[in-house]
Amino acid sequence: MEILKLATEWAKSEIFSTRFFIFFAILFLIASIGFWQLGKTDIARAYIIPTFVAGILLLIIGSGLLYTNIQRVSQFEKDYTTNATAFVESEMVRTEKTLKEYQTIVFKAIPIIIILATLLIIFVNTPTWRAVSITTIAMLIVILLIDGTAHARIENYRQQLELFSK
């Protein structure tokens, strides 16, 4: 029963964390509206669409993760009561897969995209491309911050699962 409590606490922590995607999505959307209503210069007007798109993307990410983790909490108890050993094994497989995805996407691909966006700022001198690059960097930093803490949580969860499987 301790493993069920651990899994549920992990999922609830993920639910709390994914709400930050939605929070930052709202901030990006508010910024887009602000640029639309108050932007007088070319660079300010150039931020309208990129911040709107970043807000929508973060909203999709946050909503998807929130829904998935809410479903996961209710499914944990069913899976655990059906077969506790299979539950632990499936969670170990899932966490291992997720950790590999973090290594590939969050800690390799996102920094590369940030570097490319930075190079775009340096070499392309149009307001639109600068706004796109800066907004992309801001959005990816938000993702790195949130997923960095999620990575630490899932790594700790994986270690706890290993203790229970022995």
Give a quick set of tags describing it.
single chain, 166 residues, mainly alpha, elongated
Task: Give a description of the structure.
- This protein is mainly α and 166 residues long.
- Helices cover 94% and strands 0% of the residues.
- α1 (2-38) packs antiparallel against α3 (48-82) and α3 packs antiparallel against α4.
- The radius of gyration is 20 Å and the shape is elongated.
- The two termini are 15 Å apart.
Short description:
This protein is mostly helical and 166 residues long.
Along the chain, the helix and strand elements come as HHHHH
Binned, the helix content reads over 70%
For the terminal residues, how far apart are their CA atoms?
Answer: 15 Å
Number of helices: 5
Counting helices, strands and paired strands, the structural category is mainly alpha
Tally of strands:
0
Strand-residue proportion:
under 5%
General shape: elongated
Main β sheet profile = none
Mean pLDDT, all residues: 94
Query: Looking at the chains present, what oligomeric state does this protein adopt?
Result: single chain
Output the radius of gyration.
20 Å
**Unreliable residue runs:** none
